[in-house]
Amino acid sequence: MASLKNEEAVETSNHMEKCSLNGEVTNNVTHNGPASERNKLEAVPEFGNEIRKEFMLRPNSVFLNHGSYGSMPRCVHERQVRYLVEMESHPDTWFRYNMYGYMKATIGRVAEFMGIRMEDTFMLQNVTKAANTVLKTFPFHSGDAVLVNSLTYGAVNVAARATTAASLNGAQTLSLDINFPINSEDEVVQKYEDFLKQHPEVKLVIVDHITSPTAVVMPVKRIVHVCHAHGAVVFVDAAHVPGQLRPNIQDIDADFYAGNLHKWVFCPRSAAIIWRNPSRQHAWFRPLVTSAFEHRGLHEAFGYEGTKDDIPYICAANGIEYINRVGGLEKINEYNSTLLYKGVTYLEEKWGTKRLQVPDSMHSLYQCIVALPFIPGFSDFKETPAVTQVFMGKNLELQKLLLDKFDVQVAVVYVGQELMVRVSVSIYNTMDDIIRLADAVLALTKTEALFISDAGFIRVF
Ligand SMILES: Cc1ncc(COP(=O)(O)O)c(C=O)c1O
Q: Which InterPro entries did the record assign (predicted)?
């Protein structure tokens, strides 16, 4: 996979099979002519209930949590299965020969989709691994610090702390507090400026482009500029960006920029990219797993980490194809953001609560956080979950209750000590989903009490 070029990928991608909307797998070279012509002929289902039939989500369930793990359409899943069958039909042919061509084509298509060069783009399973790759290869010196912030994704926060704690050179992880309401982007950028002035020991900054679970779009370009002015390397955690925002990644100018494809690019779990800024080369940047091709180029080293299933990476090309087939990112942006705005306004009215207060420019397009009304047995617990206890807390008990009792999946989160929901919308959601969420929560507000036992929930309705 040496010396990858975008043109080579386009050439190779002509031999990749694409999935059509009706779930059939077609090959645009041998059967159907150019994809653009075929697209014109295919009817695109209406977003909402019609397109939901393309997905494998449980019928009648309310799924307002695309943001956590994504969900892929059936046609991409079927393509994944066909690749699996191809792999199983002759493992040697797959691993020794064919898979590299597919991978190369996919990296080219993903790079083109993200507006970056494939030479600078590497695939790995997920953003947790991307963050660990930078953290674990970063050359810490005595007294160095990593800077995260109070909105940093839990697993990445834990990874930073574990890495610095294990560092023989006595590195440490510092955290910048970002509290709500956020009044302006300037306020956030100034916090970085002030902090870094006082902490010259910060050598690596990790900042989310879209925070999770709070769904705030951070002014990453300006933060990167401040960090560089203070001599720090920046890793942008853009787990939610591919398929949601269309940033100019080169212009943001971070040292590393990593995003998940299995969330908003409709491909199998798990697939992600890490982009290395060509104008900020760091020789220490290597894959986390050292394997046979360590001493060849970086693409070879990232491309082969021992025997594993790389089909989710390969199917990222099919996820992108699906996005194009249903009308493109602009159309998806428009549908999701319009539904989100309408839905959140409805929830605010029904619940008498407010969305998280941030400037308009810092709201994400597909996700929004809304405060819950008082729910007995939950809202009266005032918890501040520790970063090391990401998977525990009343929020997750309530999330499970909404699922078990009402078949409503939504992320319930703490912001400070307040229980809120993170509503994620995708092209298969409608206002009916939002209304069912609103009603389920209102039903819980009317319960007398909810007692929790060691054995699980004892519900009193
Ligand atoms: C901001 C952010 N970073 C990292 C991750 C981790 O993603 P993964 O579990 O796919 O590694 C997530 C997952 O939701 C996230 O929201």
A: Aminotrans_V_dom (IPR000192), PyrdxlP-dep_Trfase (IPR015424), PyrdxlP-dep_Trfase_major (IPR015421), PyrdxlP-dep_Trfase_small (IPR015422)
**CA–CA separation, 96 vs 93, rounded Å?**
6
Residue 374 has pLDDT above 80, yes or no: yes
Could you tell me which residues are beta bridge partners of residue 205? 147, 234
**Rounded mean pLDDT of 236-259?**
98
Contact 151, 177 (CB under 8 A): no
Pocket test for ligand 1, best of 66, 127, 262 (most atoms within 8 A of CB): 127
* Of 112, 57, 49, 51, residue with least CA distance to 321: 112
Q: Whole-structure pTM over 0.85, yes or no?
A: yes
Mean pLDDT, the chain, whole residue set = 89
How far does the centroid of ligand 1 lie from the alpha carbon of residue 275, in Å? 16
What spacing in Å lies between the alpha carbon of 143 and ligand 1's midpoint?
Answer: 28
Measured in angstroms, how far is the CA atom of residue 122 from the centroid of ligand 1? 17
**Ligand 1 centre and the CA of 37: distance in Å?**
37
Are the C-beta atoms of 240 and 364 separated by less than 8 Å?
yes
Q: What CATH number is given for 329-460 in this structure?
A: 3.90.1150.10
- pLDDT tens sequence across 426-451: 999 999 999 999 999 999 999 765 54
Residue-wise pLDDT for 104-120, tens only, equals: 999 999 999 999 999 99
Ligand 1 touching residue 156 (CB < 6 A): yes
Inter-residue contact 224 to 254 (CB < 8 Å): yes
Residue 361's Cα: distance from chain center in Å? 19
C-alpha atoms less than 13 angstroms from C-alpha of 400 in its C-beta half-sphere: 13
Lowest-confidence range among 27-31, 253-257, 425-429? 27-31
First to last CA, the chain: 61
